[in-house]
Protein: Glycerol-3-phosphate dehydrogenase [NAD(+)]
Organism: Guyanagaster necrorhizus
Amino acid sequence: MAPFITKFEPYEPEEYVIDKKSGTKSPARLEKIAIVGSGSWGTALARVAALNAAEREGFDPEVRIWVREHEIPGRGKLTEIFNRTHRNERYLPDVDLPENLVAVPSLKETVRGATLILIVVPHQYLPGILEELKEPGLISSGARAISAIKGVEVVIQKGAPQGTARIYTYPSVIEKELGIPCTALGGANIALDVGRGEFCETTIGVLSAKDAALWHAVFDGPTFRVHPIEDVAGVSLSGALKNVVALAAGFVDGMGLGGNNKAAILRIGLLEMSTFTLEFFPGSSPLTFSHHSAGVADLITTSFGGRNRKCAEAFIKSKPEYSGVKPEQRGKTFEQLEKELLNGQKLQGTLTSREVFEFLEARGRLEGYPLFEKVYRISFEEMDPKRLFEDL
Amino acid sequence: MAPFITKFEPYEPEEYVIDKKSGTKSPARLEKIAIVGSGSWGTALARVAALNAAEREGFDPEVRIWVREHEIPGRGKLTEIFNRTHRNERYLPDVDLPENLVAVPSLKETVRGATLILIVVPHQYLPGILEELKEPGLISSGARAISAIKGVEVVIQKGAPQGTARIYTYPSVIEKELGIPCTALGGANIALDVGRGEFCETTIGVLSAKDAALWHAVFDGPTFRVHPIEDVAGVSLSGALKNVVALAAGFVDGMGLGGNNKAAILRIGLLEMSTFTLEFFPGSSPLTFSHHSAGVADLITTSFGGRNRKCAEAFIKSKPEYSGVKPEQRGKTFEQLEKELLNGQKLQGTLTSREVFEFLEARGRLEGYPLFEKVYRISFEEMDPKRLFEDL
């Protein structure tokens, strides 16, 4: 059972033009990168892509990133500060960004003319964004997208017979809505560490060897190691479901339990992630979960360091029976904690937990996923967190 | 790819005798448990086994544990204190032990008459112990052993041609030396948490369904969940090799690097563990590593909380180029750190690292295991720890 890394030749421009006078050869067209989303993870990925675009043949060095306009009192507009200081002061303040990464306040102007579009937004914002991007002629023909969105789309028709609920990955939603091919990116990547250039790995779920070469050229670097595999759904699902398991890991931390518990929860969570994906996306591979950065490694990172874990720990600690908080901070909902702890960033795990729960319930398959079920019930139905370990 | 948990019927004594007068039925013979080893892990497992032996039909309630005699100044002999206070004051001081767990200073008296023998000692001590246990008649015929030893036995004949080096798991060494069947126990188990009765899982690599039922009856309990699988070598190898990866995790911590790095090291480490086992023990299953507590879960626990990680972090921090220590504490060897930090317990990872390195070198297979190779060279050949991420 060898890892199934996709084989590919290093990226090269497909066509060249030769200048008749000087005889110099240059690419017939340049790939132009646009980044939709400027949270901490979007900014960290934008930095990696902009560093590569500036150096690699075949790429337009200017990389545009969509930054929602925002007035910082006494300092001016966020995009202007971004383009003057080359920092995203709101979401990744301590990281220097390359000068060829340009903040653009208009979503449409960000993607106009782009051939490679990274979409990295909280999944609740995606429908509105896709609506705007569907303007005829806005997206270049031949453009390609890559999704780093963590989540799933669940469709349950009220009153429809049980078993008709459907689930989609975001790459497939983007493909359908925008009519361009979409791959997936996921991996053990804490944004700040990537921003600082620390070594890490990421996985790209690709559609073909050509796709692998292209996205590898966009993101791979000496400290950001990109492995393409042919499993778009697996990479996408793993990125969504690991946040649900990270909530369980946060519950363990909040209850003050030890490493054995957390390891057991991670092991069982990884199994449910893999089983869920294979049950509903049968073309996926279990190796995506057991062997790749988007699977086991991302789960570990997220369950020890991510924001879902952090909020889930705070959620438990805010309960009257767990000590360490003042009475006025007790019994908080995830909605409150998100506002207090995340500085405007969005929590993905709770949303995904609800969607996965509703999907499994509508399909009559809850009993196959006791951990996913319990995370939902502890989060939203006041189940005693101590029951997390029952029936696993 | 379903998990391959072994199916078995719950344990029942094989034969009963009926008292003619009263008509009461009782087991024809009682299983008698002996624990060879009283470090923190041995004591925690002994506690679980003794609780079960006291309650389950077919078991002699007295469980004996071998405790090397030791005089505690002003307080008396360690075994006497153990049997009076029902605590192992040296290695698991905060845990109350059941009264039917009896410390015995003589190894031979511990195992005499036992039918189930748990061997849980640092692997460097095993040869001497087996020598003593080989006394004719000491081990009951029909006895069975289970090994919770973390390590491998490597045999390299000086001057022999390359490729003839051999590697053995400890269950196979014990089987060969004592002539009784031996299974393996491993899992995500920090001794103190198990001692406190926190929820955790463990994996038993068994030889048959009968074996599964028996050892499940010895160890399984409400908070100590035992899963038997038919992969003795996989469970045993995983327990040994995870300590090598935990050293790498400690190096990452010592260098002050983030969660991405550590997750990448764990992912690559898990792959090398699995690949190594399948290469040299082809009957093993990759699922042992990807799906079971003895694999991925134990690796996580050990790499975040275990003693190998702790000493490896201290090893890096003692180097002049890493801050945080006084000059007189700089540049320590693992031997020094083991003495200073482990209160008499032994480090298994460095020993296993050396054995695995020598074995791979003798087989000409180092290039297949770059992480294992680097852990050895950083530990013993002063390789710069920053090179850990090269060529992975």
About this structure: Chain B has two domains: 28-230, 237-389. The first helix of chain B runs from residue 40 to 55. The two ends of chain B are 27 Å apart (CA to CA). The first strand of chain B starts at residue 16 and ends at 18.
